[in-house]
Amino acid sequence: MARRLAKGDSEIDVVDWLRGLPKAELHLHLEGTIKPETLIELSSRHDEQPLTLEQARALYQYEDFLGFLMSFKAVTERLKEPEDYELITYNMIRELARQGVVHAEVYVSFGIIHYWKKTDVEPFVEAIERGRERGEKEFGTTLLWIVDAVRHFGVEEGARVFRRAAELRERYPSIVGIGIGGDEARGPADQFRELYREAKAAGLRLTAHAGESVGPESIWAAINIGAERIGHALAAQNDPELIEILAQKQIPLEINITSNIKTGCCKGFDVHPVKEYFESGLMITLNSDDPPMFGSDLLGEYVLAQQVYGFTMEQMRELAANAVEASFLDPSRKLKLLQRVEQYA
After folding, report:
1. Rounded Cα–Cα distance for residues 307 and 301 (Å)
2. H or E segment at 250?
3. What CATH code is carried by the domain that includes residue 252?
């Protein structure tokens, strides 16, 4: 479709306009923002035989959802020291600012640190905080953390992750919420019901990946354990009653179009339900998930929505406002960002 659109008596460059639109990203994994070039830097720090660029790029290739999980594991295995986390946090904020992202709420996997590294997470939290503070100061994009438990590591591991998140939140107020990612089939949401109740009582906000690689029952379970936002929700399209409930309750959905295609969870761009969800009155937000793994980013997702699915520019503004409204920002900051979106010409 055309890159330029008529607006009144003039034309606008769609990509430039969408880049300037103040955007918030709500579904982004810190460990999934590592570009091949950064992976080479990490490899040079830790591998006896450092990766070449060709070898690094090969690690981002996969054929299905389980292949993606293995690819993700291969990349994140190069994250060994706190300084590595500081590096990728700073690089992530710089990249977000380049796309016109003014705020992001980013998943960081305490589960990976606990389960694979067998070490306490606080030195790594100190490191991502250094990266966050430096990045926010230099680029202006604000950041909050959502602590992710890898659901297929089990409930006991999830309990350790969420309880540590609650403890650390007292010292690091940028830790705002919790979530469960990973393989839904091996970690049903209803197993985490008590942990979510406990996390809520500790003042943490609640999210959950659901309906990405399994059916709508996963989304129902996420709602029933108290999730305030749902990541992916791809399978909701198969349950009219669920669509009705999501519309009535206006539960924000963290939509990841390109991610769903690349992992094979959705068969193609032509059958993705993003526009159907919007027209059904669901509160959808656009997100990039793990950008280098999918060959996209948040700006790319906005361009995709406009050019492939025919969202008007005013609807694109509505999507940007949805993300701000669905964020876990305090009311005053949220209001200021909403005003910026509304006033964007």
Report:
1. 10
2. none
3. 3.20.20.140
Is 212 a known active-site residue? yes
Instruction: Output the pLDDT for position 9.
Output: 44
25 and 322 Cβ atoms separated by less than 8 Å: no
Q: Please state the separation of Cα 304 from the chain's center in Å.
A: 17
Nearest to 305 by CA among 11, 21, 8: 21
Number of C-beta neighbours around residue 25 at 10 A: 27
What pLDDT digit, counting tens, does each position of 88-117 carry?
Answer: 999 999 999 999 999 999 999 987 776 666
Q: Note whether residue 101 is domain-resident.
A: no
- Separation in Å, CA 156 to CA 111, 168, 241, 272, 342: 11, 19, 33, 35, 45
Query: Is residue 26 assigned to a domain?
Result: yes
Q: Tell whether 82 is covered by a domain.
A: no
Q: Give the HSE-up count for residue 211: Cα atoms under 13 Å, Cβ half-sphere.
A: 26
Alpha helix stretches (DSSP H) within the chain: 14-20, 36-46, 53-58, 65-76, 82-98, 110-117, 122-139, 155-169, 193-201, 217-224, 240-249, 257-262, 274-279, 291-294, 298-309, 313-326, 331-343
pLDDT of residue 112: 74
The verdict on residue 130 lying in a domain is no
Number of domains in the chain: 1
Low-confidence stretches of the chain (pLDDT beneath 50): 1, 9
Enclosing domain of residue 159:
4-34+106-117+143-343
Q: Which residues contact 30 (CB under 8 A, 6 or more apart)?
A: 85, 88, 89, 92, 106, 107, 108, 109, 128
Residue 116: its pLDDT value, please?
A: 61
Question: Per the structure block, which two tokens stand in for 151?
Answer: 């659901």
Q: Which of 95, 105, 212, 301 is catalytic?
A: 212
Cα 268 to Cα 181, 262, 271, distances in angstroms: 23, 9, 6
Place of tokens 């399978």: 235
Global pTM reads: 0.94
In the chain, DSSP assigns E strands to 4-7, 10-13, 23-29, 101-109, 142-150, 175-181, 205-210, 229-232, 253-255, 284-286
